[in-house]
Design a protein that fits this description.
Length: 414
């Protein structure tokens, strides 16, 4: 075990455990576990500059990750993370913002943010000698696990609801994972994978269940720090907009920023804004009620990646916004579709969950939660190629004409 990993701490009761004492949730109250790093040793051993390598992936932050180097050179496992940051002037002008960035997670190897978590979980699986890794997914987490596992030669099993978009299911199969479609919801698939992991001895990657998923997702927080906060002089806190389903992405970004704060390398904590669909808003409901009690909903939204009845990382997701001076925003599916169409002309093809963050920014500006002088970063969490059906809903179908110039002239009114 790497010496920088001291242990695990329950996010609810604060109980601490050794690195190998507990695998998933706190045995006392079922709370999510936070990885405890040896910040004192890390501060002595590294500076902000020496802790970051030149590798163009999340593995550039290996000293700050609780896993050993997984090897797998020149494979997609070494390409997760270090995603591009765009600053489209036309979109900034349309919204009246002085400073706007969009971080495009669709450029990850399997085209979503979830590659970050899966890369680190696969590294952990190799480290502990896991025979099989299993996860529940509406598509993206499963594709990420399938792709990262394939790169590492690690057997993987994916349970997905049968309603998952066909393009996402195709990814799972092409990467060679064992895929099972469940005639039920994501939450049903989640519970089934937990039971299977217990009975078969598999290692469970489930979001909001395995503490190492947050450790992968926190690398986006490191990149926000390195790409913006460490180089730009911001006179206001950066406002980060991210879509929320299970809550693990916003919790992960928050964990990465808190790690940097503990190390003394982060001067100003960004404000984190979680965005949920109105049809799947369990975390937003808790935030607005001023509670950490997450009440399940019956999720109904076209944004399948954030369609969750009971968010498994809801408490930490509430805290991520509350503790940073951020907030939660809910948007209708119609606003999500509009956001897909609005981002497209800037060269950004977002799936519904990624576009939800943009819709949330629009709503936050309209309500005064953020203003034109606030620097803003929007996370696009996945490629629009993941759900072309939703994309066509957003923009409409192309016209069909006979192969003649008369027809083309008529179409363009030339």
């Amino acid at each position: 075990m790497t010496e920088k990993l001291l242990g695990l701490r329950c996010s609810l009761c604060g109980a601490e455990y050794g690195p190998r004492e507990v695998t998933y949730l706190c045995p006392r109250d079922g709370g999510n576990l936070d990885v405890i790093l040896d910040y004192s040793a890390l501060r002595k051993a590294y500076t902000p500059q020496s802790a970051v390598s030149v590798e163009p992936s999340l593995w550039r932050y290996l000293p700050l990750l609780p896993v050993e180097d997984p090897g797998c050179a020149a494979t997609p496992l070494r390409a997760a993370g270090w995603t591009p940051l765009y600053s489209p002037p036309a979109l900034a002008a349309r919204l009246g913002l002085r400073q706007l960035w969009i971080k495009d997670e669709g450029r990850n190897p399997t085209a979503s943010f979830k590659d970050r978590a899966s890369a680190v979980v696969v590294a952990r699986a190799r480290q502990i000698g896991a025979q099989v890794v299993v996860t529940a997914s509406t598509g993206n987490a499963g594709a990420a696990l399938a792709g990262m596992s394939a790169a590492a030669g690690q057997p993987a099993v994916i349970l997905a609801p049968k309603t998952a978009p066909p393009a996402k299911v195709a990814q799972l199969l092409v990467y060679g994972a064992r895929v099972v479609l469940v005639d039920g919801t994501y939450d049903n698939a989640f519970d089934l994978t937990v039971e299977a992991a217990q009975e078969f001895g598999w290692y469970c990657r489930n979001t909001g269940y395995n503490p190492f998923t947050v450790e992968g997702k926190k690398t986006a927080g490191f990149e926000i720090w390195e790409q913006i906060l460490f180089t730009q002089r911001l006179d206001r806190p950066l406002c980060v907009f991210v879509s929320v389903g299970d809550g693990n992405i916003i919790s992960g970004i928050h964990k990465g920023l808190r790690d940097l704060q503990e190390l003394g390398w982060l001067e100003q904590m960004p404000r984190l804004f979680g965005v949920q669909s109105e049809g799947s808003a369990a975390v937003a409901n808790a935030f607005r009620a001023g509670t950490e009690q997450i009440t399940p909903v019956s999720a109904q939204t076209l944004a399948d990646s954030i369609s969750v009845d009971l968010p498994r990382d809801g408490v930490r997701a509430v805290r991520a916004a509350r503790d940073t001076g951020g907030s939660y925003i809910t948007v209708p599916d119609s606003a999500i579709l509009f956001a897909i169409a609005e981002l497209g002309p800037a060269g950004i093809f977002a799936e519904p969950a990624g576009a939800a963050a943009w819709a949330g920014l629009r709503a936050a500006l309209a309500s005064g939660l953020v203003g034109p002088d606030d620097p803003v970063l929007v996370m696009n969490t996945g490629s629009g190629l993941k759900d072309t059906r939703a994309a066509l809903q957003a923009v409409g179908a192309a016209p069909v004409i006979p192969p003649s110039m008369d027809a083309l002239r008529g179409l363009f009114k030339v």
